[in-house]
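Sample entry copied in:
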Amino acid sequence: MGRFGVEEEFVLLDEESLVPLALGDAIRKRIADESTLGTVSAEYLTCQLECITDPVTTMPDAERQLRHLRGLLGAHAAARSAIAAASGTPFASTRTSAVSPSPHYDDVAVHLAHISREHEVNGLHVHVEVGDDEERVRALNRVRGWLPVLLALSGNSPFVDGVHSGFASWRSIVIRRLPSSWSPPRFHDFDDYRAHVAQLVDLKVIPEAASLAWAVRLSERFPTVELRVFDAQLQTEETLFAAALSRAIVLTDDRISIGELDGIDASLWMAARRGMDARVIDPTTGAVADAWQVAGRMLDAIRPALAELGDEDLVDEHLERIHRHGTGAQRQSRAFDRDGVAGLRRLYRDGTPALPL
């Protein structure tokens, strides 16, 4: 019980300009072949790579794999005068990134048309194993109400086109243009979930169920609830924090169900805009509250699960770090304001320190 897996997306950036750089198929295959813990695979655009852990049961197990994978990407990036950046959006862009060759991605690119040219986004996805179909749907419904505060805690994409977007998570705004994005509706049961997804496929707004862009969904490949609300995180410690919160929420049977779709999506917009300075709807009361207050109520609700899983100290310590040093978006903004591109370059490199090749 309590198995989970992590998927992290990275963008390769030119070390001088911080604009995306494409990787050829041969190089991406070489990186994948060199991984000894977890998996490296191509992502939607040729400037992106995804690192995927094997299923794990503890945060130290996840940490070993994540650090190995980040180090591998960092080393190959450095060898090419580049940086593997764990940021929800690149600092700047030439809008020339190509779609990675595959039948699936080709279909998606045709469907999205011009959106693909600007879809340079990197996320963090956390899979939490839940064996029973109906319990997975109940867990998905529980997660919905906490999505805004999870985004507020993890916003890490403040830049677009070389300027500050004014948003903590510009990635979330870009994702909003996709069909079936942000919060899913509340589902009555597993059959209701499947019927909703089948309708979207029938409408042809998505080519298949695996293309759902909801911030939380049921995995089509694994018996997991998949949380997709997070931006890619600067540091491994931040990824582990997001994973610990995700697992505890999914495994906490608190029956919280407050949260209409428009209220959750409005709260997600505010979380994307203002991060932890946002006001969002508290799913325990239905009232509007400060994001820090809602984060506190979320921790109160999931603390027994955190303690049972051995993640309580990790979450408390990282939440204190956010209090002291800010979210990824805030740290990116400060680094740029202080030292410009050089400040961002150092921040990105710190997150993917190169392993010896």
Remarks:
- The chain has eleven helices and 13 strands.
